[in-house]
Design brief:
The protein is α+β, with helices and mostly antiparallel strands. It contains ten helices and 25 strands. The protein has three domains: 26-85 and 254-302, Immunoglobulin-like (Sandwich), CATH 2.60.40; 92-232, Rossmann fold (3-Layer(aba) Sandwich), CATH 3.40.50.410; 392-485, Sandwich (Tumour Suppressor Smad4), CATH 2.60.200. 34% of the residues lie in helices and 27% in strands. Residues 1-30 and 331-338 have low confidence and may be disordered. This is FHA domain protein.
Length: 486
């Protein structure tokens, strides 16, 4: 790695790197058209949105459509430029370093790559290559990639392909028309796991990702870029960085929209597959696209139109409410008459049964209620063992700080972790409603509310309610409460 970096710095100094990265460059002459989508919702008007890596002359193009084996030319068409930029999402894999100079150069490279993604409104994910550990940073920002960045120093990976496969597992499949780009940086002239290149390239194509390989000129790097339909930039050539950043910036430029009227003017509700072609002989450009007309697609486009969907939805909701109201008003008179007659008949039939039930069980229930009231009155008059206090307080210990005082001024004080309790304990071992203290004629009685960890009074687990005495210690979870009474 050191030899490669030295060779790189010989051809390409840090100042040259900053100059090429920060200075706008002229785009390549190859427009590189990329289809975004075809909008046939307003057929026969068709809108084709595409991206071009370079500016082009809108004159001299010929636009045609093919249906089966027949071809027709369009009478007129126009190009329109969109208003917003396209987000470029980057997934960057960089190697580790050997010394401070290597570290500064690699961080500078990652900083400029992430900054290009930020300027387009995209996101970036960074991986530090390692055979043993996984170092990845989600949604990283360029202002983080400076001299203070926690760059882990790990040995250079011996198997870069396997390392990139692990990185690829954490990247979701690109199911949109946006640009999601893999950037693999390597300083190794040979890859020991080069036989796994076809499988890695297949996985990159399956996830619909674009690949950029920044590595020394080697057969392995060329194969990987070729198999994955990507780009290879030799790391030892200074022109590679100018081309790389020009290409990335061009991806973030605005899209173009080709608007024209189809010469076939077919029915939107019949199935037809139409192929289009845009050709410019002078500029050596050939751009092809396809779109479909069918019943289900036209229905989907019609329903997805907000100007159609919302009015129809409101109308259907109003129709359902009106139907429910009508059915309710229609059934209400007959149902009320039937229910009244049924209630009267059932009441007359069971009248005798109710009278017998009242004679058998009514007096017994009244007697049980009277006995319960008498028992409660006796329990209130009974005296409890223990001292009575006119004033009680709990001292809550919190580490080495001075204990907090909590006065027992209610007839019943609840203790637990819920905020609805009188005394809230922020302790994970305390239940929501853990314990309570009742004040009965000046005697404070401690209860355990069937908690899982229990309540301890003076070091012993509380098995039944007990009256508190002065200087008693209560343990609830990891909290110690001291009772003071006077």
């Amino acid at each position: 790695m050191e030899n490669n970096l030295r060779k790189l710095r010989y051809f390409f100094s840090n100042w040259t790197f900053l100059f090429l990265v920060l200075t706008p460059t002229v785009l390549s002459s190859d427009p590189g058209f990329k289809l975004r989508y075809v909008d046939s919702g307003s057929y026969p008007e068709v809108k084709v949105r595409f991206h071009s890596n370079a500016s082009f002359d809108s004159k001299g193009f010929v636009l045609s459509e093919q249906l089966n084996s027949n071809v027709r030319l369009t009478e007129s068409f126009r190009f329109e430029k969109t208003d917003v930029k396209n987000p470029v999402h980057l997934y960057i894999s960089i190697p580790s370093y050997r010394n401070a100079e290597d570290r500064r150069w690699i961080i500078q490279l990652a900083n400029q790559l992430v900054k290009v993604g930020e300027q387009s409104g995209g996101t970036s994910k960074l991986q530090i290559q390692s055979d043993e550990n996984k170092h990845s940073f989600e949604r990283i920002r360029s202002n983080v990639l400076d001299i203070s960045f926690p760059f882990p120093k790990v040995p250079a990976p011996n198997y870069p392909i396997r390392n990139w496969e692990n990185f690829l597992e954490g990247i979701p499949k690109n199911q949109s028309s946006e640009d999601h780009i893999l950037v693999f940086v390597s300083f190794a002239p040979e890859w020991q796991d080069r036989f796994e290149i076809p499988e890695l390239a297949k996985r990159i194509r399956d996830k619909n990702l674009q690949l950029i390989v920044l590595a020394p000129s080697s057969l392995e790097a060329t194969k990987l870029a070729s198999y994955a339909n990507g780009r290879h930039y030799p790391i030892s050539k200074s022109d590679s960085y100018s081309d790389l950043f020009s290409y990335l910036r061009a991806l973030g430029h605005e899209d173009y929209e080709l608007v024209y009227t189809s010469p076939w003017k077919l029915s939107r509700w019949k199935t037809n597959f139409i192929s289009g072609g845009l050709v410019s002989v002078d500029q050596a450009i050939r751009f092809e696209f396809q779109y479909e007309l069918s019943f289900f697609r036209s229905l989907y486009l019609q329903l997805s139109d907000p100007l159609f969907f919302f009015p129809v939805s409101f109308f259907l909701i109003f129709l359902c409410l009106a139907a429910l109201y009508y059915l309710r008003g229609y059934e209400e008179p007959s149902r009320s008459l039937v229910s009244v007659t049924n209630i009267e008949s059932e009441f007359s039939e069971r009248k005798e049964e109710l009278q017998v039930y009242d004679r058998m069980y009514g007096e017994t229930m009244e007697k049980a209620a009277r006995d319960r009231e008498i028992a409660l009155a006796i329990a209130e008059k009974a005296t409890l063992p223990g001292a009575s206090y006119s004033y009680g307080v709990l001292m809550v210990r919190d580490g080495n700080h001075y204990p907090d005082q909590f006065p027992l001024q209610f007839d019943e004080v609840t203790i637990g972790s819920w905020e609805s309790n009188h005394l809230v304990l922020l302790d994970p071992t305390v239940a929501g409603l853990h314990a309570k203290i009742k004040n009965r004629k000046g005697k404070h009685i401690l209860f355990d509310c069937v908690s899982q960890t229990g309540v301890y009074l003076n070091g012993k687990k509380l098995l039944r309610p007990k009256v508190l005495h002065n200087l008693d210690e209560i343990q609830i979870g990891k909290t110690i409460l001291s009772f003071r009474g006077r």
